[in-house]
Design a protein that fits this description.
17 helices, 10% strand, seven-stranded mixed sheet, alpha/beta
Length: 386
């Protein structure tokens, strides 16, 4: 690992991967593509290459170092931090699971809040759960200590783009088009962080399935440890098992239900290698046509967090007023929505003057995690049907 750190600190050329994994051809081809963009035939190096590329490359080199040391090849170097974040958020997890069970049990009570209102609450809990990111906090405590439901009203004003109504319309349209088949949407959730954020995503998924808004949820995570706290298969399964084993009645009931959803195929977990490549998502149709085709069968794709947003937009220095759809540059497999708190220097789809006003009031608005977006785009109808 010291060798890799020295390469990074001294702007050494980026080296081809040599570990024999199935993704090395894609990685090394991407390096050649970056090489073709370099001026004066300079080698691709740590300081002179796009940050998104070398950041992804760094995490892939960490994995290469492990794979080249067989005794630790399956070791997750970030597991301890993810586990700590999960356990330190137990009180918030209990509160959230209790609230979910109360909502589902009380659905037949006419005095209870309508379905739309509850959907918006669980969506916003998932949104603000995205603040729990170990790669941003440098491994420091990022756990959720308080009940997330209680803070939603105070956080509403920090949502810069709120397209929640468009998500609801998509879910309602899927209900109406069910015909004689089981109604409800197929929803894909492209996960971000393990720990409390994953709990919020599972709770949202539980709610939309239990209420019939969705008939199937397909979770997508990483196939290797990634960006410190990103969800991989081991994290996903471990979280469900830990929730089942809770001595808190409602939390355990949630875990049992989640395990049942997985067993019955209502929920499924997928970890396509494309998610740990450095490509912008507009490359998916050519680099991972099987994944793109799978997403085309979805009614709604939710993409959690900053890394997914950076890859949606190519991590480019877009003007803040550029429409979200234009920044996607053709990536439009299905109706999609970014659900993120802002922790990276890219944000599109704002109103004229909105970005400038934010900069004058709060210079760190794009990186502090204080602000958030629920940002929706839907491809043209004829493309969805094709």
């Amino acid at each position: 690992m010291n060798m890799e750190r020295n390469e990074l600190q001294t702007d050494k050329p980026v080296l081809p991967l040599t570990d024999g994994a199935e993704d090395i051809e894609a990685w090394n081809q991407y390096m050649q593509r970056q090489q073709s963009l370099m001026e004066d035939e300079q080698p691709v190096s740590w300081f002179k290459s796009p940050w998104l590329y070398v950041e992804c490359y760094m995490y892939r080199r960490i994995q290469e170092a492990l794979w080249l040391s067989p005794r630790v090849g399956d070791f997750d170097v970030f597991k301890e931090g993810k586990t700590q974040s999960f356990f330190e958020s137990q009180q918030a997890t209990k509160s959230l699971c209790m609230y979910l069970r109360e909502v589902l049990i009380g659905r037949n009570n006419p005095n209870k809040n309508p379905l739309l209102e509850q959907f918006l609450k669980f969506l916003q809990v998932s949104l603000w759960g995205n603040r729990c990111d170990l790669s941003i906090s440098a491994g420091q405590d990022n756990s959720q200590k308080t009940s997330p439901i209680d803070t939603l009203a105070d956080l509403q004003r920090f949502i810069l783009v709120d397209d929640s109504a468009d998500l609801w319309a998509v879910l309602m349209a899927a209900q109406a088009s069910g015909g004689t088949e089981i109604r409800g949407a197929t929803v894909d959730i492209i996960l971000d962080n393990a720990g409390f954020e994953l709990i919020t995503d599972l709770v949202l998924a539980d709610f939309i399935v239990s209420t019939g808004l969705a008939r199937e949820v397909r979770f997508h995570g990483k196939s290797i440890p990634w960006f410190v706290s990103d969800v991989n298969k081991q994290d996903f399964n471990w979280t469900i098992m830990q929730t089942m084993a809770s001595n808190h009645k409602e939390t355990s009931a949630c875990g049992v239900q989640w395990k049942r959803y997985m067993k019955e195929g209502v929920w499924s977990y997928h970890d396509h290698r494309f998610w740990t490549l450095p490509h912008a998502f507009w490359d998916m149709a050519t680099e991972a046509p099987d994944l793109y085709s799978s997403l085309q069968s979805s009614n709604l794709v939710l993409l959690k967090g900053d890394l997914n947003y950076r890859k949606l937009t190519g991590d480019r220095d877009w003007e803040h007023t550029v429409p979200f759809g234009r920044a996607l540059r053709g990536f439009q497999p299905a109706p999609l929505c970014s659900v993120r708190t802002l922790k990276a220097n890219v944000q599109v789809g704002l109103q004229p003057g909105q970005g400038e006003k934010l900069t004058s009031q709060d210079p760190d608005w794009m990186t502090s995690g204080k602000y958030a977006v629920i940002q929706f785009f839907s491809p043209p109808k004829e493309q969805v049907c094709s």
